[in-house]
Amino acid sequence: MTATVLTARALLLDMDGTLVNSDAVVERIWRRWSERHGLDGDEVMKVVHGRQGHASMAVLLPDRPMKQNLADNARMLAEETADVEGVVEVPGAAAFLASLQGLPHALVTSADVPLSTVRMAAAGLPLPAVRVTAESVGASKPDPEGFLKGAAELGVAPADCVVFEDSGAGIAAGRAAGMRVVGVGTRAAVHGPDATVRDLTEVRVEAAADGSIRVHVGEA
Question: Which contacts (CB < 8 Å, 24+ apart) does range 59-68 have?
């Protein structure tokens, strides 16, 4: 793999699929939901990664009132928060987060506060001090609002941020925010990120003397 070096002033990190492997839970809960609504589980799984639940429902059940989607989403979030079986760190996530201590970074996730807190803990990962969760935004990924808010909270221009994402919705959101995107995992490559890694063992971060962050992508 050829190494790529990206220079940034802040890193914005998705959670599910990027730092935390929660695929087992997501599959269980959304396939149950698919059965209840008579939908094809495989097709549903192509939509749900990266989005808030109600936004996925709006795509999958376009004629259903948003009020119903929001109520259904609240029930789903409660189910997801109670189910952490099989939730583990993406390889390299703990070391990656440790390397970011003292450097500007934020979690930008479609999960809400309870779900993100439970999943990061289940994976044995520390929560970044700056967090943009579902409660913080009015629009779900692929809307760029979450990433733009993360950059604003860190006081960094969008063009100086590098996003780490695994899903099509998340990569689209990072691009719409005017940021460069590192795709993490097999789902990411088809969505055209600026660079792709198998997992976070292939990323190395160093602080430069001018205060910028050098992100070495594609290094074991």
Answer: 61/37
